[in-house]
Design brief:
It is found in: Cytoplasm. It comes from Lactobacillus panisapium. The protein has 2 domains: 5-101 and 221-393, Alkaline Phosphatase, subunit A, CATH 3.40.720.10; 112-216, Phosphopentomutase (Alpha-Beta Plaits). Helices cover 31% and strands 19% of the residues. It contains 12 helices and 14 strands. Helix 9 runs parallel beside helix 11 (298-318).
């Protein structure tokens, strides 16, 4: 059947076990969901995700989340084919634009010529300049930044350039202007960076610094048309919740909502579900990644999953017969793993509509693009031919 509304929810970084190419990324043994389950030792309660089949595609069920005897929806996994394991790569691939060209990475910090241009534009010195956890480098250099007005610049294992500054020292609008300028420097050909991220923080001292919800991602513009563009071209409504608008640089998005938190994102989703529209609503919930995965806070990650699951129950209750829900992730970020970077994992694929009569397995999909191909086929739009739709498997 054709669905009037499709709601996609990305549980940012909630992977479901090492991908086939995990060794290439030095991520063998990573398993975000599995290790969270082990940590909670049976106390990870996800009844709504469980009945959708969260554990059913796994060889071994997530501890505390048994395989459902009769799942109410379709379940599976998806394998990434993009060259990186960043949010940009994952989301672009979902919308049928895999990232096939290696972006610029800076394992030893950024080159002097690039930093000199940012310093000259901003009129501020630069400190940091190394791969580091954001919370760690802000704790280390934040007080210095408050005294001097310098910019804290750092990176990670992804193609990102992050700029942190205290909101009382460098106003958010000024930080954004600096990031926009930095974005203009790394669109190729010499340097091609996936994301410039503004990382404002507040607090009186290193023991009380907190990064704020004024984070903003200045992402490389999509290098081709995505499913979102084709939907928009065809008059199909497209709505982005959370960092979706940033990830696609506003391309293909009719209406966007900025999230303060996962629960704020779910409030936005509840609001959109009350609307009468024909189209696709794409939601990203970033707290799993930014608040817990990168900080290797396994307890917080599990609690955030349980909080989401509680809200998911309300989403399921609101769905119409001609609504379709697709829940997935953009990469892994195993909070029990070494380091602080994303992990190359399979991601879950949970698909539900109240109209389904014969739920079952969708297997392991060979690319995230199967998601976008399914959305495109449902709304009968053109595509760039990446991915295989599973629409006709939904009964």
């Amino acid at each position: 059947m054709a669905y009037k509304r499709i709601f996609g929810i990305v549980l940012d970084s909630i992977g479901t076990g090492e991908a086939q190419d995990a060794a290439k990324f030095d991520d063998v043994g990573s398993d975000t969901l599995g290790h969270i389950g082990e940590y909670f030792n049976g106390d990870l309660k996800l009844p709504n995700l469980q009945k959708l089949g969260l554990s059913n595609q796994r060889k071994t069920a997530i501890k505390g989340v048994p395989k459902a005897d009769q799942p109410i929806g379709y379940y599976g996994n998806m394998q990434e084919v993009s060259v990186g394991k960043d949010s940009m790569d994952g989301h672009w691939e979902m919308m049928q634009l895999p990232v096939k060209t290696e972006l610029s990475f800076f394992p030893h910090g950024f080159p002097a010529d690039l930093l000199d241009k940012i310093a000259k534009f901003s009129g501020r010195k630069i400190i940091g300049n190394r791969p580091e956890s954001g919370t760690k480098i802000i704790a280390e250099l934040g007080e210095q930044q408050m005294k001097t007005g310098d910019l804290i610049i750092y990176t990670s294992g992804d193609s990102v350039l992050q700029i942190a500054a205290h909101e009382d020292v460098i106003p958010v609008d000024e930080l954004y202007r600096i990031c926009e300028y930095a974005r203009s420097l790394v669109n190729g050909p010499e340097y091609t960076v996936g994301r410039i991220i503004a990382r404002p923080y507040v607090g009186p001292d290193k023991d009380h610094f907190t990064r704020t919800a004024n984070r903003h991602d200045f992402t490389l513009k999509p290098t081709g048309k995505t499913t979102l563009n084709y939907l928009q071209d065809n008059g199909v409504t497209t709505i982005g919740i959370g960092k979706i608008n940033d990830i696609f640089s506003g391309e293909g998005i009719d209406q966007g909502y900025h999230n303060e938190s996962n629960m704020d994102g779910m409030d936005h989703l509840d609001h959109v579900m009350q609307k009468d529209f024909t189209g696709f609503c794409f939601t990203n919930l970033v707290d799993f990644d930014a608040m817990y995965g990168h900080r290797r806070n396994i307890k917080g990650d599990g609690q955030a999953l349980m909080d989401f699951d509680h809200r998911l129950g309300h989403v399921l209750a609101q769905m119409h017969e001609d609504d379709l829900l697709i829940i997935t992730a953009d990469h892994g970020n195993d909070p029990s793993y070494r380091g602080t970077d994303h992990t190359r994992e399979l991601v879950p694929l949970l698909v539900y509509s109240p109209s389904m009569k014969n739920p079952g397995s969708l297997g392991t999909r060979s690319t995230f693009s199967d998601f976008g191909a399914t959305v495109a086929e449902n709304f009968k739009t053109n595509t760039n031919n990446w991915g295989t739709s599973f629409l006709n498997q939904l009964k």
